[in-house]
Amino acid sequence: MDTAVEVGSREEYSWRDEKRPMEVSVETAHQISSDPWYQVAFVLITGINSSYILGYSGSIMVPLGWIGGVVGLLLAAAISLYANLLVARLHEVGGKRQIRYRDLAGHIYGGKMYSLTWALQYVNLFMINTGYIILAGQGLKAIYVLFWDDGLLKLPYCIAIAGVVCAVFAIGIPHLSALRIWLGFSTFLSLVYIVIAFTLSLRDGLNSGARDYGIPSSHWDKVFSTIGAVANLVFAYNTGMLPEIQATIKEPAIKNMEKALWFQFTVGGLPMYAVTFMGYWAYGSSASTYLLNNVHGPVWVKTLANVSSFLQTVIALHIFASPMYEYLDTRYGRGGSPFALHNVLFRLVVRGGYLTINTFVSALLPFLGDFMSLTGALSTFPLTFVLANHMYLMAKNWSLSRAGKAWHWLNVSGFSCLAVVAAVASMRAHRRRFKDYHLFADL
């Protein structure tokens, strides 16, 4: 691992100054510097427009209302873009491409922070993947209920089936760059369920009477639900694995990553806004954390939407599991073709085992909205906002004005406080869930 950067040093690299290809900080079994910026942009858009967006009407708009929800989403987009640009511009600090979040933190701070960052990122990605498997299970159950509403196929069974499908996909796709054509399928599938959810919500809204847009619950419940919704806001935009995604992009890595990020936070966010706002307009405070449970329409149309949501979730999960796969493949895998028998069997055992744990937790605690807020509080806030601002402050200290330093310290302290408060609010929500539902609940 590289030694820490001395604060105040003038060691700085950028795509404008570097003419030769950058070396990689450490070895990896996955592909580096192979993807054009627009492919990376679609990786980011796959994350932002995954099936999670079907829950934002209920998990963000309902607790915040029209003003808080709209302003919150736009403000969170601006703050998230800024924080991600900071991380992207640190990709070549030290004269090498820092291809993992923990490598970047380790280079700047040293070994202890390397381990802490890896732990935070693991929690972040594990919880995101858990949420994806819950989503996939909800999609399967919704399909079953459309045809056989007899209660035999319960949500935990659907989650188990979803986990198996995700494992099969993970075995067949060796690394993040290999998604290529699957990103096209993902975009198409996203458009299918977004257009259907938007259209059916619009029809329901036009055909229904007055809706209640009031924020439900008592005073203290409103306070805690608002805090939880703020954590959902940051969860909606951020991956917690930007250096790993940036590692796949062709050089100049910083310039190309900036293009991908601007595309993600402008054009890429429009479908999410459309379905989130339309869902809340149509159903008000009764909007579900899985919007397709609210909509009315022909069975075949709702089935198509749920199938598309399920399949897109399988692809999106692979993106957020890829840092763990890369770690396991690099440390324990063998060389040769990714499709050699020994490598396929390795992925079967290792990735299958990892997703088995994910699937078990998903079935045990299938509370999707609470998982989003808890993920945002415990890992997205620290990784994307606290750590990003502090790493930039440490690495660029010599070139920042006094006002610039004060600004980054304000971000570090402010987002640290928000992370603590959001974690308390999310844990409170989980405790209340346990009063209403048992483990392996059929929601």
Automatic annotation (TrEMBL):
Q: Which InterPro entries match?
A: AA_transpt_TM
Q: What is a single cellular component term in the Gene Ontology annotation?
A: membrane
Biological-process GO terms, alphabetical: amino acid transport
Q: What is its main location?
A: membrane
- What's the superkingdom here? Eukaryota
Which residues does the UniProt record annotate as the domain Amino acid transporter transmembrane? 37-426
| One Pfam family, short name | Aa_trans
Quote the subcellular location field of this record: Membrane
Write the record's keywords in alphabetical order, separated by commas.
Amino-acid transport, Membrane, Transmembrane, Transmembrane helix, Transport
Q: Tell me where the transmembrane regions lie.
A: 37-58, 64-87, 122-147, 153-174, 181-202, 222-240, 261-283, 303-323, 371-394, 406-427
Q: What is this protein called?
A: Amino acid transporter transmembrane domain-containing protein
